[in-house]
């Protein structure tokens, strides 16, 4: 099951240690710390590019999408408080279609669930004023019973997995 | 439990029960156990699609063992479970849209009936005080009332429509056949049988306009005498409601529930579970991993009773707490269930 608790923590442990600019000699400590950049990287690493690749298919194929142009999430939209084990991601839906915003949010939540240590509390929301049914989308994305039920739907899980699979083109 | 001002309370962890392989959603103490020399029995249900039965090693022991695993019946998350008043049957509600009825047969539990009808996830199940009626609720926005017939037959007697979103929990009043449901639509609805038409109908809706909640209402619980109800919500508050119990018990099922007080400022994240002990202590389990206990304050305001925070157990679990349940026999035992996959047994004691 994608919800296995051990899978979440193992995924985190197995991620290779990396250094960031300016970490210098404090590398081993730096890899312990979950900061804003790291959470953004988790999302950035494979999610964004593949997700954007997927939504390109359902939008006007003539439109020249790029990662920069779409700006579904930016580094500024990821707030992290490691001491309080708290992450909030604010994303900007590229399409006004309600169900698409929910799918983007669900993908973000699953990605973070699988990548972050289980101690983290995660809130996902659409950027204020960017969606017609903002409150409804936010409420759904943060109702863990609905999320749990959604993730037992094989079709939805397939879609989420596809969005989260790195593309090798 | 009468609490003196100088008395302090202590919540001590007795045991962590491990075995579920996914988050634990619900808990139910068997009401026929835990007293008169009968070891206490607790049921737990989980995202791992199973139900586990835990039994106290002996009536005086503080250790529980897993006595049975109920599996291969539900094909998705088991969201909630409830023992019949006699303690002989266990009902389990699942995201697979069914409710199963289990009976202990020798050392094994067997599924003796399956209730089908909801369109999708069943989220909660509750028996009435006499065990003659069962209620279930679902994401399909409906509440179903089932009549318990001989031979493990269950007849649907009413499908209650009124909530505009998924129904999170159903709970019968402890003495009168009045049913309560709470929902993602932020309301609590009160349902009773119409004496004339023999059908069930909504007699009251407690919403934001009558001092109700402003977000999903996750759970509700009654005090020992049934004249008060407590509800908890995603709006980070718990609310206490009261009714004229004499009027309700004399058969006036339309007796109005009114808001008595709101406890806000105590919780930081969604409150998933609230449970009122026989001794009058309200426990909450929340998404901030903490257990909180509230008791009635001696200093009543002009508007009615007020409650104070008696104790906060931070990091009671490593993750969200989905259910807190007091043992029904008044021994101060509290069970909690969490996303961390464990159940904990706690003992509440007062220290002079």
UniProtKB/TrEMBL annotation, chain B:
Residue windows of the WD repeats = 17-64, 71-103, 115-148, 160-191, 210-241, 314-352
Keywords (alphabetical) are: Repeat, WD repeat
UniProt keyword annotation of Protein transport present:
no
> Taxonomically, which superkingdom?
Eukaryota
Q: What is any one of the record's Gene Ontology cellular component terms? A: cytosolic [4Fe-4S] assembly targeting complex
Which SMART domains did the record assign?
WD40 (SM00320)
Is Manganese among the key words of this record?
no
The record's Gene3D superfamilies line, in alphabetical order, gives: YVTN repeat-like/Quinoprotein amine dehydrogenase
Annotated GO biological process: iron-sulfur cluster assembly
The similarity comment for this entry is: Belongs to the WD repeat CIA1 family.
What biological function has been recorded for the protein in this entry? Answer: Essential component of the cytosolic iron-sulfur (Fe/S) protein assembly machinery. Required for the maturation of extramitochondrial Fe/S proteins.
For this entry, the protein name equals Probable cytosolic iron-sulfur protein assembly protein CIAO1 homolog
Question: What organism is the protein native to?
Answer: Centaurea solstitialis
